[in-house]
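Sat 14:20. Reprocessing the chain from the morning session after the first attempt stalled halfway. Input below, unchanged.
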Amino acid sequence: MAAIGPDDQAADPEAIKRHRNLFRAARRRQNPALRRSDITITDEAAVKRAVGAASLGNAMEWFDFGIYSCLAVTLGHTRCGGAGAGHG
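Finished this time. Tokens:
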């Protein structure tokens, strides 16, 4: 069964008269009206600030990970005499 669009002439005029609400609902589903929640307004400065903050946070995380990695290796060599997990 094919969908009947607003430009489609296959619909019987008598059927349209009898089932006016059905055809109106079909047209509304094809072109829904905008709601207030569909529209998003963003401030360009706020977007730039959010991207900058996220980038700074990401850089700080990687710096923290790098410092921890170097410190863990250094402490492992100084406290354990350079012995790894396999040197028991």
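The two ends are 76 Å apart (CA to CA).
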